[in-house]
Amino acid sequence: MVNLGDLSRASARHLLDKDCPPFETAPFVAGPPLRQRRVAIVTTAGLHRRDDNNFNLSDLSYRVIPGDVRLSDLVMTQASVNFDRSGFQQDVNVVFPLDRLREMDGAGEIGRIANFHYAFNGAGQLPTAFEATGREVGRMLKEDGVNAALLVPV
Amino acid sequence: MRENTERLRPPRFLWVPFELGRPFGAPDEREFQARVLRAALALLERQGPPPILDDFPDNAPGDGPADMTGWSCPISFPAPEATDQPALPARILDEISSLTPWQALARERRGRTGLGAAKMGIEDSARFLHALWAAGGSTDNPSPTLSLGQTFRGASEDMKTFYMEAATARPSRVSSRELADWFWGETAAGELLLALHPACLESVDAGVRRVALGQLVPRAQLHRLNKG
């Protein structure tokens, strides 16, 4: 995401100073071809359905986005103000590419779209703080038969 | 950013050279978004070894000086420094009135709006924000379900969303920076949000102070706080 040179010095420094501890192991699994995969999107853009609770600052919870959601029902309450929202306001797919995924599904390029996708508020916390809810979502993805998770930061 | 990802070492990662907030490149660019998505999902068929860090080769459509089109907002407002202007709340309500047909057009064309964080109408959000500023960061909370800080946060986000949706109603390749500079530098709503920053840092409400500190003015616009 993003070229350092495109950011102000203060913004670049802020992002570079974030604590990004490396994964202690290097889990890596192969799997079936993409056309046999069941794909879910996990976003940190703070998206949710309009009637769901807003995300708060330092919010560790997640929101469930049904696979058949109408994109017009999605709003964004991510805690950070330091990224562009005007793209999302014009087209949800620039953040959450569900229409594109549906087109790939229709063309047989992927196996299926998951029954549920998941959204976190990717700001205000270290990645390690999300371990418990991350594992919870992992279990639900597994129960949904998902074998391809597209993790999308914002 | 690539630098952070190199430290994290996830199993598979596609780095994209797009601005923060636009991981699939650009709005309403269906083919380009599909290319990015295919490039990301293609990593699943790679056999390793990890970490696999690929770079997406192209900039987003509209990036770069060749695509700058000299955008202007569909509605012109008086310059903030103009004399003999109505008071700030009246100017904001005038702006909202002028922008409402454009925001309605955007909503109609897109079939959606991002408004709703404050759970109240945009004019009520404007009135609440002005009351909060006038009272030094603490006022009656109109929301039965949100805390005062959450209402502050929601109302400020709804103001930005309303203006941005209206400003992008006409198809154009306006950059996010142009939009942000317009909102924060040329509108009465931006003027109010900038004024709320110092006022709410002194609020007796901790939630209001937290919003003012880090969830109101983007880092790239903080320089405006030092003006005047």
What does this structure look like?
Chain A has 154 residues and is an alpha/beta fold. Chain A has one domain (33-152). Chain A has 4 helices and 7 strands, in the order αββββααββαβ. Chain A has helices at 9-16, 86-90, 98-106, 131-143; strands at 38-43, 47-49, 62-66, 74-76, 112-113, 116-120, 148-152. In chain A, the strands form 2 sheets. In chain A, strands 1, 3, 5, 6 and 7 form a 5-stranded mixed beta sheet that branches. A two-stranded antiparallel sheet of chain A has the order 2-4. Chain A is globular and about 45 Å long. With 228 residues, chain B is mainly α. Chain B folds into 2 domains: 2-58, no CATH class; 88-226, no CATH class. The mean pLDDT of chain B is 91. Classes of the chains: A alpha/beta (154), B mainly alpha (228). The interface between A and B is large, with 68 and 69 residues.
Which features would summarize this protein structure in a list?
heterodimer, A: five-stranded mixed beta sheet, two-stranded antiparallel ribbon, 4 helices, globular, B: 228 residues, mainly alpha, 2 domains, two-stranded parallel ribbon, 8 helices, 2 strands
